[in-house]
Each structure stands twice: as C-alpha cells, then as structure tokens.
User: What shape does this take?
Amino acid sequence: MFQNYRAILLVGSITLFSSMAQASAVEQGKAEFEARCQQCHGSKGDGNGHLVDFLKIKPANLTTLSKDGKCVTDKVLNAVLGRHKSSYEEAKMPLLKDALSLDKVYYISEYIKTIQK
Assistant: This one.
C-alpha cells in the first residue's frame, strides 16, 4: 500500500512540475515579448504596436497564427530566426537570431499560444 502512495505522489509531482514549467515558460515568454516584440506587434499581439506608423509593412497579427492549423512554435521560430522562404533582404521583420537564444524564442512562442483567438 505504501508503494501505491509513492506512485501517486510521484505522478502528482510530475504533473505539478510540468504545469509549473509550462507556466514559467509562458511568464518568461510574456516578459520577452514585452521587451522585444510589442513595440511592433502591439501589447495584444494584434500588429498594432506604437512603431507601426514608421514601418513599411504592417506587423503580423500574432493572435491568429493558429488559424491554419500549423504549429505556432514553428512559425515563430521561422520568423524570428529568418528561416522563412524569402531572402534576408526581403524579410518582413528584422531577424533576431543574434539577439535571442532558442530558449527565449521558445518562451515567446509559448506566450503567443496563449493569445490565440
């Protein structure tokens, strides 16, 4: 019977740790988003940041990235790291691959998942 309690405790701990890690990733992503992304994409991620009037191309509405069923994380990684189909000169947004670690890009994508409509 003691082993059953240990198994239940272990499963509960893993579930709690997983939830805490996910919450932490979202919180870190929100902080990175606010520091690096909201100037162009807006505080709501809708593409209406305070720099929008100074840009040639309106920033993407990040709240609708999941509408086509494709992976939000992949879309964020491709845009931020410059892996989209266009060349560097044609990139719609500045590449941030030298300014952000992969972990930070992942955290941003976790936050962006929470603002999907």
Q: What stands out?
A: The chain has a mean pLDDT of 80. The two ends are 47 Å apart (CA to CA). The chain is about 55% helix and 0% strand.
